[in-house]
Design a protein that fits this description.
Strand content: 15-25%
Number of domains: 2
Helix content: 40-55%
CATH superfamily of the largest domain: Leucine Dehydrogenase, chain A, domain 1
Bound molecules: nicotinamide-adenine-dinucleotide
Distance between the termini: 31 Å
Number of helices: 14
Largest sheet: 7 strands, mixed
Shape: globular
């Protein structure tokens, strides 16, 4: 199923429980603006390549639009459109004063030199600078882009519009970035996992966890969960899974990955298993934090974990999600589970607008506050209407956007 179709399906389910009219649904689903631009780049060897870039601005009824900028060879309008609408629901469920957007350039960043990467960024900004900015649409890093790309983005945007670091987030900390942005998504996963366990009256010490993916999100989620005394029994990355039924030495695993260029490859103090086996482990909590579509109708019946935290975007396909729901598995949906990143991006934007820098402690406290609040609202909504956490989260998000559209005018 394409990304757009699953977001739409989840939207439809929640919209149905809200009794939204067809005209309201059409308004909420239709992006405000979609643009496709030509990005001509003179490569290092002198060849002129014409790349295609996109920015989809889905909704701005609750504030400026917010969403990542992806450089990947699979980037296409359908995917960008789905991700833009996902951002609208994600910012709404955690109640940030933002709408949703997403953009990207269809290019393989690994095949580019640093100079070419900078050129792609600057040429793309040349094409879209007049529709993005601190009060309209604020991009951020995503697949294939990083804080350096954001620094070039800001520099190019400021050539047209003057000083305005709030035009983009995820910048280097030394250049108006926020402390704690790197850990934010994984930290958020930890905060939310803890809240969910409390609601389920379970103890972290008695909760065995398996984490798939050990990149930015998986690494920091593991760190946070270990601090909260969860028992991490398995972790994985593209090199495979690493399992110890009696619990991994998480500090040692974190140090190993750090000293091994982020990779778990070669970690010896555990049994080597496959990523597929990791998903089927006898654990109390599963945290898919790698890529989308890893739990499908083909393997869902092997899943034993009663709690799944969707740290990655879309790790469970809708039909697999239905089966998990029937079995009473608690799935904390991606729009809430990985919203820690956009929340700290919001803090970065706020600091930039105030010309004032917060310390890490404050950022962590505010993140805890925003996510804990959002979790409680989603939990209560689910209980009140007899809904799973995903539909409850979408319901809250859609209700907020629909209200803003109705009261503020479209
Ligand atoms: P990353 O590139 O830093 O790390 C990805 C990790 O997954 C790596 O350890 C990689 O080895 C592993 N991996 C890749 N393919 C795999 C596979 N088929 N099986 C098992 N492991 C595999 O990415 P990230 O920033 O950690 O993002 C992970 C997920 O979280 C993505 O779905 C992303 O869209 C989502 N997400 C990230 C953020 C963020 O702030 N980084 C925010 C929201 C959502």
């Amino acid at each position: 199923m394409k990304a757009m179709e699953s977001v739409r399906l989840y939207f439809e389910r929640a919209a149905e429980s809200l009794n939204l009219s067809d005209e309201s649904k059409r308004l909420l689903l239709t992006p405000k603006r979609e643009i496709q631009v030509q990005v001509p780049v003179k490569m290092d060897d002198g060849e002129l390549q014409t790349l295609i870039g996109y920015r989809v601005q889905h909704d701005d009824s609750r504030g400026p639009m917010k969403g990542g900028l992806r450089f990947h060879h699979d980037v296409n309008l359908d995917e960008v459109r789905a991700l833009a609408s996902l951002m609208t629901w994600k910012t709404a469920v955690v109640n940030l004063p933002y709408g949703g957007a997403k953009g990207g350039v269809c290019v393989n960043p690994q095949a580019l030199s640093r100079n070419e990467l900078e050129l792609v960024t600057r040429k793309f900004v040349d094409q879209i600078h007049d529709i993005v900015g601190p009060t309209t649409d604020i991009p951020a890093p995503d697949m294939g882009t990083n804080s350096e790309v954001m620094a070039w983005f800001r520099n190019q945007w400021e050539k047209y519009h003057g000083f305005g670091p709030a035009c983009v987030t995820g910048k280097p900390v030394e250049l108006y970035g926020a402390k704690g942005r790197e850990e934010a998504t994984g930290r958020g996963v930890g905060i939310l996992a803890f809240k969910l366990l409390q609601r389920l009256a379970r103890k972290p010490q008695e909760t065995r966890v398996a984490i798939q993916g050990f990149g930015n999100v998986g690494f920091h989620a593991a760190k946070m969960l270990a601090e909260a005394e969860f028992k991490i029994v398995a972790v994985s990355d593209v090199s495979g899974g690493y399992y110890r039924p009696d619990g991994l030495n998480t500090q040692e695993v974190l140090r190993y990955a750090q000293s091994n260029n982020g990779s778990l490859d070669g970690y010896a103090d555990a049994e080597l298993i496959s990523n597929e086996e990791l998903l089927a482990l006898d654990v109390e909590m599963l945290v898919p934090a790698a890529v989308g579509g890893v739990i499908t109708v083909d393997n869902v019946d092997n899943i034993k974990a009663p709690v799944i935290i969707e740290a990655a975007n879309g790790p469970i396909t809708p039909s697999a999600d239905d089966r998990l729901c029937e079995r009473g598995v608690f799935v904390l949906p991606d729009i809430l589970a990985n919203a820690g990143g956009v929340t700290v991006s919001y803090f970065e934007w706020v600091q930039n607008l105030q010309h004032y820098s917060w310390d890490l402690n404050r950022i962590r406290q505010e993140l805890d506050h925003v996510l804990s609040d959002a979790f409680e609202q989603v939990w209560r909504q689910g209980k009140q209407h007899g809904l799973g956490l995903r539909t409850a989260a979408y319901r809250i998000a859609i209700e907020r956007v629909e209200f803003a559209t109705r009261i503020g005018g479209a």
